[in-house]
Every structure is written in structure tokens, then in C-alpha cells.
Amino acid sequence: MSSVSVIVLGAGDAFASRGMFQAGYVIDVNRSRILMEAGPAVLASMKRCAISPAELDLVLISHLHGDHFGGLAYLILEYLHETPLRKSLVIAGPRGLEQRTWALFHDLYPESDTSKVARKLKFVVLEPGKNARLGRVKVDTIRTPHTIKDISLAFRIDAGGKTVAFTGDTGWTDELIALSDDADLFLSECTFFKTKTDTHLSYPQIVAKRDRLSPRRLVLTHLGREVLDRASKVEFEMASDGMTIDL
Q1: Which of 4, 101, 180, 233 could disulfide-link 247, Cβ–Cβ 3.0 to 4.6 Å?
Q2: Claim: this prediction has a pTM higher than 0.85
Q3: Alpha helices, DSSP H only, in 40-152?
């Protein structure tokens, strides 16, 4: 069985609460690396963790909010000027990801010629409720109650004989039970403690649902200020920037 680990590039919410970087994770499967989410500081986070952008084999994006895909613009900039891509890179996510990524990049750097990088990038649409085989990686998806017009996704990723389940951003849905069933790691968002909303999970909700979830390891992430301010009251494992989770 392969050695699999997850490196947390950013465990914070959209507001970078308490100085934590926004969403980003690298799943390391032997010599293959999967980037899951690309918050605005993803390039800095990768370099702090000594991960070269050239080492990425696959990028997975759950939804089209800036704290989850905005860093793709800076990865493209890196590939243009600092670290040229030597191989094709698949970027997979919900409908609209390709158009929004290029629109964002050209808004930020309107005079850049991206043709060389564009030839190396392959965007793949992930449809909720279906699975996709991306190289040696199998990705199952569900739609989460987070966005209305756009699609937001949660992932169940099988790679190297291990399973990583990830909520993305979501309110509670019973589909998370099957998504995380027997997963080696379940990364669950936990944005709030007191605030109640249908589009994000709170710590009391996760406590209430814990007996219905059966992953081998549960780690809370996408941590908001309310949760971080009450860290001493949180009984579950919490992610932190730079943390490595061995599976």
C-alpha cells in the first residue's frame, strides 16, 4: 500500500481568522501530489511547506468562492514566469471553473500572454453525484448546500489505497454520512460555534451528528473566529497551517 499524507496549507475561513491561511491541502501519494482547494495565499503556503508548484499532478476545486479558487491565478502566474510546467496539469471542479479562472487571471494581469500555460492546463468538469477517474485518482462528488446559482461540491477521494473525504463548504446534509463512511480521513469544515446558518457547519452541529459519522479520523478545518476563540472547548482534532496528517 502506498504512503499517503495530507499537508494542510490553509485551515482558515474566508476571513483568514486569527491569521490562518485560507483553504488549501496537498494530498501526497508517493511521488504524486494532489492540490485540493486553492485559496488566495496558496502559492505562499506551498513555498513555505517546500512544495514546488511543478510537482502538482492534479488540482481539485470544490466551488467558485475566492477563498477556494482565487489562488489559481497566482499558480498560473508562477507557471508563466518562475516555474514552467513540464507536463500537463488537470484542474477539476464544478461547471464554470475554467471560465472564471481565466477571467480572474486576466483581470489581475490583463497584458499577460497565457497561451503557453493554457496549452498545459486541462480543465475537467466534475458533476455532482458522479465519479471521475483522474489518472490514478478516483473522485466521487456530492452537491453541498452552500451556493445557489453555482455548484458547490464535497469530495470523496480514493488514492494510494486510502480514502480522504472533504466537505468543502456546506451546511448539514445527510449525504455527508455516506461520503465520510469508513474514510481514512474526513476533513470537515467548522466555520462557526454560535452562529447558525444553512450554508456552513457549526461545532455544535458536528457534535450532534458525530455518532452518525464513521470515518477513521475526523479533523475540523475552515476554522472561523468563533471556533478559534473557543478552541479549549472543542473536543475534536483541529487542523492548523503547515500540519501534516499521515494516513
Answers
A1: 4
A2: yes
A3: 42-48, 66-69, 72-81, 97-108, 115-118
